[in-house]
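Sequence in, structure out. First:
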Amino acid sequence: MVEQNSGQLPIDTKLNHQYDQVLAGYPIYPHIEAFKRLRIFLDGGLPYSEMVAFRLSTIFTHRLFSLSKDLLNLIRKGENIFGIPKQDEYNLYKWVDFYLGDASGRFEETQIVDSYRVDEKNKKIENKNWFGPDIQMFIDYLTGENNINFSQLKPFTKKLSKRGYFAKVAGKNINLILNKPQNLNGHQSYEVNFYPKRDEERGYVWLEGYLSRDLNSQAMVCSYRIYPGESKLHQWKGPETQSLIDWINNALTFELAQQVTTGFRQSRDRNTIFIEQSEKNKIVIDLSSRRDLNKEDKFVLIPRKDELYEWVEVYKLGLPDSKPTFITYARVNRETRSKLDSLWVGPTRQRYQDYIEGKIGIRDLQSYGITVPLNGDIYLFTDKKNDRSISAYLPSDIFSAGDEVTINLTENNDNKLIIEFRNESDPKKQIRYLYDRQNGSFLKISEDGQVIKNSPGHWSPERVRSEATILIGKHKLTKITYEVFSELGKSDLAHGISNHYPGGIIQLSIDLGITPHRKPQGYWSNTENIEKEALFFYQTEGDLSYGLLLKRTGASTLRNAIQQYPGKIDGLRKKLGILGEKPDTSISSEDVDQWLDDMLKQS
């Protein structure tokens, strides 16, 4: 409360002072005296420190003031209106605040009804384009006026408009539009508290708005990125997401990129995480192969990097007492429009891909674990240069479907790649293959170290179909014979079909649909047929997902059949042992595991 007394009034030079501390023991003058001093000040005859508090007792006309309708209505009602001259601690602004009080001169600090700026340059006092010192400082920071720096900015408050979900700062075309808060009908008295914020390390400056429902509850309703000297507010998703976007766009170093918690957009054909979507940039992670996700699910995106690759790992947050579940990888590829390759095989298997294509050396390869599929034929990578997929056969007398297998790497004296598959539960169960770079195949190595060419494992039925399918597509073959394959330089494939494919070249033609052959009635009702077709698709394409089935011409029948399979695509992948590569946490940053534990505690 502020009381009337005698003495000379000093000027409030600190915005955080309480008015009762400033005015206690000092008089409140009539407005005629106050306006006289203000006029002399504007003419350069008085310092601002000699301005005085005053009371508006009558309606008047004065060249210094043009009273607002709100003030005029209060005066007509006989209310006591008091004017208090003020200036900020940086001497940037001078203004007069008007308060609603009682006859004795008492008024509440919060009862401000209007505010007028003292314009020294134009020698007038008006409330047009004046929003109080805190908001005005923010506007001037955006527009580049008065050389405002960030350290001078202060929080400010705006009431919600009559519509209930807008707060406007109507200066220089700057509008603060809030995300629509829920259940606000009839609650226009709510206020929004705005806080300017800065990230020194990354150079971000932004404004956050919080809806204040009560003293103990605030909910964020907007966040705008701002640039000093630019009269515009930019929509964004906050500093964490922006750091991830900037790293992906090569505008920020990996060390400054942060983990992000987000949801995803669910549509009819796909689930997608949109990290950024604008006219210039579109950074997305495709989760179309995961039909087990719900729109309420939350995910953690973790930036990762090793000496060769950069990528984002996606984890699904579960219950508070459970660990986040690994979902997928997405490789950073700045040359593409989407900037991320969602169908990436992971940093370990990608090394094999790049080794086959001659991009890296054998010493860059790493061991990793994988699950043995139903047929024992493990897809490893694709030789894009020669249009062929590379896989290795694990015989059923050594390995069973579902076995956890470690793939270890060695090299012989000729600098050739040797891959060893070892059963984790029984290390004695192992098999070794020599990679034949010329033919893009694996040759079995016997226990005495001898290479066994054209072994049954080398030309498994799945490999035969895979190699034949690639040749058919590449050369647009309408028929296949041993002679055709030999003429194309694939006599080894012809030999594999003749010696190891059940039914030989005729059955292979039927299986690949080269000769006219309609599927018998009820064919797609048989789960074994679906498994066979899905396995063939997996071996030729390198993956089995709804997204890939949608992209491939002629795969619609298989896609529809999978929808009727028990457990749909996830059940089918589990049945076939297509579980994919396990995430390699050994190459993560040191604090990732601790971070995941902290996330669980905060959930």
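Second:
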Amino acid sequence: MVNKSEGIRFRAFFIGTILSVIVVFMGQYSRLIGASSMSIDHMPLAGIFLFFVLIIGLNPLLTLINPQYKLNPAELLFTYIMLLVTCTISTMGLGMQLLPVIAAPIYFASPENRWAEMIHPHLRSWLHPDEEAARYFFEGLPDGESIPWASWITPLLGWFVFILALYLVMLFVMVILRKQWVEREKLAFPLIQLPVEMVRDDENESLIKPLFKNKLFWLAMAIPVIISSLNALNSYFPAVPTFPLLQQTNIFQGTTRLRFRISFPIMGFTYLINQDVAMGVWVINLMYLIARGTFNVTGVTSTEVLGIYGAEDPIFKNFGTGAFLTYVFVGLWMARSHLKDVFGKAVGKRKEIDDSDEIVSYKTAVWGLVIGLVVMTWFLMYTGMSLTVAVIFLIFMMVFFIGLTKIIAEAGLATMISADTGSGQVVSSFGSANISQEGMVALGLTYIYSADIRTFPMSAMAQGLKVGDWIKQRRKGGMFLAMLIAIIIAYFLTNYLQLVFGHREGVSFVGSHGTLPFEWLSQHIRYPREPNRFGWMCRGSGAAVMLLLILARFRFLWWPLHPIGAAVGGVRWIDELWFSIFLVWLVKAIILKYGGVTRYRQGKAFFMGLILGQYSIGAVWFLIDMLTGQTGNRVFWI
């Protein structure tokens, strides 16, 4: 078992900090050599791999040297929290976005795109590098030159003010909602079940944890290890056969594709969630697919320009946004009693409410949330938004963050993004014609932290607070400090390494995706648009469908479809993952019907092996490629 009475000692902080540094390097270096991405999902490859190495290698070694050096299960989970938060910032969550986006409008400006005319006058100089620094960043340093650190220090510190406020707001929101999600709604949190099982002791507290003594676990691990290794060896020796994990076929007159992908981690996570959740995701995704194909064939389309992130079609971006809005606001309404307790405690009217088991007091969380939102609003206004646009953007952004975090906690979708972006929805709802050029530039800059949210800290923080169930006295255990340290390490070390690699490799490392927000906003500046009525109809339809699904779930015990599918079913990642979810849903239904709960519990080890096997072999091949100099050898993507 995981003993909650065990406390956290300084060694857990120390080891967690060292591993956090390593995971940032792995994330950045994997981009340099084109290996499997180390830290782009809600359960990051590098994070779980280093945790695995800590459990089966370092911790037993420390125990053999001196039993007092051994990390107890609570301390092991504590280090995992630090790794999890670090990974969400080190690449896609922020590290791949910040520097390229703030440098791109300066470097890529040309007479053809007129960015110097449309964008440059609205940039705050202290939030961006100068022209020479931007050129060196994208092109690499000339011989004999050194990195112009002075041109980057001020922008990095300036953006850190906003980013820290944003991430603290995320943490305070999760503190406020933790008891509702964990104790009242009892969300499954499938992504943390594997780490918890990995540290679980038997009665003898032997060096080898019970999970690693299970033959089914090792059998399952071998499947992705063998398949991924064959695919990786093919990069070295083309004669080695590969094992394709994706098959697809064109449907609806070739206008869309039906994908059949095997994702071992998603199969593992799906086994750990409720059957109605899994069914809701894959069934509603197929409904989205049918609707998309029908629209393609009949010519129903939308000409809105909402950006590339989220669902692929503007119709489903707006429909999914409506579903997200209903999902989040109904969830907050259901939590109204708890929220009343929290805010009452914060203002001193509900002193009897016990918040001693939270990482910070409700008073700190509520007032920290208020101050953080004020800082964020001020920053957005400083970059060019009006107060109205800033507030509306923050609402959309937080709806996507909170909704996606809850969906991940309930459905175990380790690879998932929201239906759209906050900036896209602001423009769709109120029209770029009603937003100043300065405001559009400010909306473009929000791509840094709120567009490609395949990973983000709020999800990691929610999982961390759930993991905290096994850590004695969260507040005294230092979890808040651990997350804060992880944020600081990830932010500054990530940007330092990106500057080093960028100035050495140029655009081959940095990439040119920093231009995306400015290409999007320049279209709206050139061709301003009024609010999109069809977009409002789609949002309203999505909200209504989500509400009906929620009512059906609560009124009819036999209703088989969880409403989560309406929010994320139109996103491309579900197009990729529905088949893996369906397969395990079917297998689990058979196991439960003919083997009962006992067989289901026995099967957990097998599906956990699928998860850890894929993540471990991805990291192993990254290490091999790093030593051999091989590039482009990606054995795990989704």
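Remark: The chain has 26 helices and two strands.
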